[in-house]
Amino acid sequence: MRELPKGWSACSLDECCTVISGQSPPGETYNEEGIGLPFYQGKSDFGDLFPTPRNWCTKPKKTAIDGDVLISVRAPVGPTNLSNEECCIGRGLAALRPFRGVETRFVLYQMRSTEQQLASVATGSTFSAVSSQQLKEHHLVLAPSNEQPRIVDEIEKQLTRLDAATAALKRVQANLKRYRASVLKAACEGRLVPTEAELARKEGRDYEPADKLLQRILRERRARWEADTLAKMQASGKPPKDNHWKQKYKEPSAPDTTNLPPLPKGWCWATVDQLSWRVQYGTSAKCSEVGEVPVLRMGNIQVDGSIRTQGNLKFLPKAHAEFPELLLDSGDLIFNRTNSAELVGKSAAYVGEPRPCSFASYLIRVSFVAGCDSSYVASCLNSVMGREWIKSVVNQQVGQANVNGTKLKDFSVPVPPEAEQTRIAGALGSVQIYMDRLGSACSTQNWRQENLRQAILRDAFAGQLVPQDPTDEPASALLERIRAERVASSKKTVARKALSKRGQR
């Protein structure tokens, strides 16, 4: 243990605070109407400093009072808040009530600085928790009474400055998110790069508008179906005798443009069904931590339209029965069909790495006909337009939202000419590189600020944040006084109980 500043003492939490373990009251005593005491059950009720009530209780079992430190003692262990009124505490919390001479916020900030140490002694197979005895035995250091408020004042002065910097960083991150949304919106509305119609007019040349491109895509789509179907018939030993089999081709659904906005000159609306030749669900096979072929899952698809694989992959063997049918091709679009309401529908274009690679059942693979850029379609799905469409078609179940392949086929894509798609995809790629750099810089600053926060608390409880005053009463005297007061209080309690028993005879 490090050497303590002169006048400081080491102690257990039980020596400087009364530890009150929470207890959940009967379920029928809860309410959301504000009747009774505010009822706090765990970290989910905590704010930055004070908790916010969501439930109230009419018959509390255990209570905290204004000035108590509230601490989460189970899943997760260690987070703290201050009670600013009398409240009921459930079994996920404990209340720390400092004895006279111990500053409440001195305890609060020290518990925050030692949160990891407390969490390290937690046990439990289902969720981590600390017992009342483990909490009481938690080690603290105690400064002289007069020094404690000076330390708290300096902590809060420095944390206030740090909080202002953190708030500014959060504004930057929020602005980045809004900027990305505005760029995607502009891309889908023909405002991100010069349109092919504009360039052709300036350069005095012709160009292929999107409606002509769509006709070409539809012809190639049908030709591909015919070639694939014929190959399957021949492979099965049943070659066709005539061309009647071609009538089985199902024309893709066209978009309903009734409520769709107008598009720039040279653009047209088309469905995913029209633009693609394959819409396919992924494997439901059980994957392992080791193997030969990585399998993308919904966590690998990021909200920014990228695919992240570092340290987050599972695998199948090369000899898996669904291969090569479920191996991804470069240019496939990956659509997250099942997730939370906020994340369902996030999409990304697979660019060929890692290879070979497969995809799991919560994802849908869309393979587009040549002439349609999958990264552009992914941007449309990730844009405000795409998110609004997802909200309109999502099937919300318990804890999950789902958009199936049939609905995905009906998504209406604002299709630019082929050359314009390439320019849009290039511009979006450049913007993404820029945003990745800014995002990385923000992450670095977040890390630095959190480290600085911990350094402030570490210095505070090493006696290095404010100078010591040699005339202050040492903490050892404070602890002795607390012990004496506790003994006296205990004797009074025993005497009252004895008198009470006599009176009942």
Please specify the SSE layout and strand pairing.
Layout (H helix, E strand, L loop, with lengths): L8 E4 H4 E5 L8 E2 L5 E4 L14 E3 L5 E2 L4 E5 L3 E6 L4 E3 L3 E6 L5 H10 L1 H6 L11 H5 L2 E4 L4 H42 L7 H8 L6 H26 L32 E4 H4 E6 L11 E4 L17 E3 L16 E4 L1 E2 L7 E3 L8 E2 L3 E6 L5 H9 L1 H10 L1 E3 L2 E3 L2 H5 L2 E4 L2 H43 L14 H30 L1
Parallel strand pairs: 4-9, 14-19
Antiparallel strand pairs: 1-11, 2-10, 3-5, 4-5, 6-9, 7-8, 7-10, 12-23, 13-20, 14-15, 16-18, 16-20, 17-22, 21-22
Helix pairs in contact: 5-12, 9-10
Would you write up a description of this structure?
The chain is of the alpha+beta class. Helix content is 40%, strand content 17%. The chain has helices spanning 13-16, 104-113, 115-120, 132-136, 147-188, 196-203, 210-235, 272-275, 374-382, 384-393, 405-409, 418-460, 475-504, and strands spanning 9-12, 17-21, 30-31, 37-40, 55-57, 63-64, 69-73, 77-82, 87-89, 93-98, 139-142, 268-271, 276-281, 293-296, 314-316, 333-336, 338-339, 347-349, 358-359, 363-368, 395-397, 400-402, 412-415. The strands form 7 sheets. A 5-stranded mixed sheet has the order 3-5-4-9-6, with no helix packed on it. It has a 4-stranded antiparallel sheet with strand order 2-10-7-8. It has a 4-stranded antiparallel sheet with strand order 13-20-16-18. 31% of the residues are buried.
